[in-house]
Amino acid sequence: MPGLPPLPIAIQAAHQYGLNIDDHITRLVSAAELSQYDLILVMETGHKEAIESEFPFVRNRVFLLSEVVDGIPYNILDPLVNDESISQELANELCALIQRGYQVICQLAEIT
Questions:
Q1: What is the chain's Cα-based Rg?
Q2: Which residue, among 78, 47, 77, 79, has the nearest Cα to 63 in the 3D structure?
C-alpha cells in the first residue's frame, strides 16, 4: 500500500545504525523504476514472485537478499506485515547480511 510511513520501531532501529528513514514512505513498484536497476533485492519469496510475475523483464535481476549473501533462499520477515517487536532483530539481521555480502552485492549491482 503506497504512502505509509515507517513504523516508529523501524525508525528507532535505523537511527541506531546512523540511518534516517523518518521521511521514507512506501510506494508502488513500476516498470520504469525497475528498468533503472541492475540488481533488485527483496526480503520475501512472495515479493520476488510478485515482481517477476508482473515485470518478467527483470527476472534475471531479482534476488532474495538471503540467496545473494548466504546462497540459501529464506524469507526475512516484513515488519509492516509481522509483529513490530521484530524490528530491532530485523535491523541487526539486515546489517549483518549486508556487511557479509557487501562485495557480492556490489558485483551483482555492477558497482565499482
A1: 14
A2: 47
- Rounded-to-5 percentages of helix, strand, coil across the chain: 55, 5, 40
Q: How far apart are CA 74 and CA 13, in angstroms?
A: 22
CB atoms within 10 A of CB 64: 20
Q: Is the pTM of this model over 0.70?
A: yes
Domains, the chain, in order of start with CATH, read 29-108 (3.40.50.2300)
What is the pLDDT at residue 18?
92
CB 66 within 8 A of CB 44: no
Q: Which three cell numbers stand for residue 84?
A: 513490530
